[in-house]
UniProtKB/TrEMBL annotation:
Keywords: ANK repeat. ANK repeats lie at residues 105-137. Pfam families: Ank_2. Residues 238-262 are annotated as: Disordered. This is Ribulose-5-phosphate 4-epimerase and related epimerases and aldolases. PROSITE patterns: ANK_REP_REGION, ANK_REPEAT. InterPro entries: Ankyrin_rpt, Ankyrin_rpt-contain_sf. PANTHER family: POTE ANKYRIN DOMAIN, POTE ANKYRIN DOMAIN FAMILY MEMBER 3C-RELATED.
Length: 262
């Protein structure tokens, strides 16, 4: 009997996406259960997305581990969240996925959902019992909670969505860890500089101001001082296209004059 391979076919993701169980079975016929992709992360077949529900069930029945970890410690639940394939989260949980299984840095699927501001995944995981109080530790030893992950986009236009996610986490017991101030302050600087580029009656300013309420509420929740308004000397120059701000080339033969002495 030929020896089974420990490596999955390089085209396994494309095969899974087609959803033909017979094609999947043929591709795996010469592979060990638990074989890995020939990539740096060494993902299992269940890490790959998209993968139809029927194929996922068949793979688990075949013996694939629904909690298998790749080299970063990510589980199939993590990759579903990253790919915003959140509708498959309940199926993985029913098949035995651990809702709070961590990556190497301690991040659970909930942390990943929060970082990606995927509200549907956040709600699904919290409803399934995900622990909103779990902490992670990065390479420098900094401890972060789910509320820290909510600010990782660091973009002021995301403030309303961030606020919605934050409310969900607080209701589930999450508390700030005191590491969130730098990210929120950077968002505040973005917001104030964006406002300063436009006059009071400019419609663009109104669209920016619309997120101000959410940003102010985030300041309150995290206990961070609001960033003060800024004034820009020349808004017209800042909004002008780059080519109009550059000095026009002198015409051929032009004589450059020196300023007369005072």
């Amino acid at each position: 009997m030929p020896r089974r391979r420990k490596t999955l076919p390089a085209t396994m993701a494309e095969i899974l996406a087609r959803g033909d169980i017979e094609e999947v079975a043929a591709a795996l016929a010469r592979c060990e259960t638990g074989a890995r992709m020939p990539t740096a992360l060494r993902e299992s077949v269940l890490h790959l997305t998209p993968c139809p529900d029927t194929v996922v069930r068949w793979l688990v029945e075949r013996g694939e581990d629904v909690n298998a970890a790749d080299r970063c410690g990510r589980r199939p639940l993590h990759t579903r969240v990253t790919a915003r394939y959140w509708r498959q989260i309940p199926l993985l949980l029913r098949l035995g996925a651990e809702v709070d299984a961590p990556q190497k840095n301690g991040a659970t699927a909930l942390h990943v959902a929060v970082e990606n501001l995927c509200l549907e995944a956040v709600d699904t995981l919290l409803a399934s019992g995900a622990d909103a109080t779990r902490l992670t530790t990065n390479r420098t030893g900094q401890v972060d909670g789910a509320l820290s992950y909510a600010l990782r986009s660091e973009h002021y236009l995301e403030a309303p969505t961030i606020l919605t996610v934050v409310h969900r986490l607080i209701a589930a017991g999450a508390v700030p860890q005191g590491t969130e101030e730098p990210a929120l302050t950077r968002m505040g600087h973005q917001y104030q500089h964006a406002l300063a580029r436009y006059d009071q009656d400019d419609p663009a300013r109104g669209r920016i101001e619309a997120v101000g309420g959410a940003l102010n509420r985030l300041y309150e929740i995290y206990g961070v001082l609001p960033v003060a308004p800024v004034r820009l000397r020349d808004r017209t120059t800042l909004r002008a296209p780059l080519q109009t701000r550059r000095q026009s080339p002198e015409p051929a033969g032009a004589v450059r004059t020196q300023p007369s002495p005072a």
